[in-house]
Amino acid sequence: MPFPREVRDIALVKSHRRCCVCHEFGGRNVNVHHIIQEADGGVNALENAICLCLRCHAEAGHFNSRHPLGTKYSPRELKAHRDQWWEHCLSHPEEPLGLFLDVRFKAISRTAEIHRYRLIATYTNTMNEAQDSWKLKICFPAFVPLSADDYDRDEIRIEGKAYVQLESSSNDRIFPGESVDIVPLKTHFIEYEVNDSVYDQLREQHKVSWKLYTSNAQVIEGDKPLSELQEF
Ligand SMILES: [Zn+2]
């Protein structure tokens, strides 16, 4: 049996129609999924409901236990993702108005001494109108060995600490509902290495921060502790 309509509605509203695992805006492509399958005794109630995008829904549902590659999603993990995301949505009621920037750090190579990461920033236009341009400013602590292609660079100080600020912009139009990778993988990139001297610095709290300006939405600001980069 599917969830009753009112359970689905509450789950969709509490999630801002975003996937509780990857936080992508789902629009009509979001599913309300059972955390514990009905065949395993899961109930058709809100406590057992999670909103997932099509990709995460397939990942969570189609795990083949005879070929256990990767890490299976456990019901407990799914529930933790959901509770964390619902809490976030509750404390950020302004986000469904259309501002969503997902910033991640993808590991691209690892040796014993050096880990290299690439920055991925995906912007989703959830406004009802197209945006004609965007500009991204992103600040890294100055001790991080950065390489970047096609970015303007400035050295700045925030609260006495040195940062390198990289700036990139585009006049490409972003249509309503469209997701755009604003750090495109081919034309330009931001990469950095985590080596021994960087690990030493990481004991202090250092952040990567960003601001995204678009033609007709308010500025999106965010930051993430640099130490979290190692988790990806
Ligand atoms: Zn997802």
UniProtKB/TrEMBL annotation:
Q: Name one GO molecular function term.
A: zinc ion binding
Under which name does UniProt file this protein? HNH endonuclease
The organism's taxonomic lineage, starting at the top? Bacteria, Pseudomonadati, Pseudomonadota, Gammaproteobacteria, Methylococcales
Q: Does the keyword Hydrolase apply?
A: yes
The organism of origin for this protein: Methylobacter tundripaludum
Q: Which domain of life is it from?
A: Bacteria
InterPro entries assigned to the protein according to its UniProt record, in alphabetical order:
HNH, HNH_nuc
User: Which stretch is the leader sequence?
Assistant: none
Where do the HNH nuclease domain residues begin and end?
9-58
Keyword annotations: Endonuclease, Hydrolase, Nuclease
CDD domains xrefs: HNHc (cd00085)
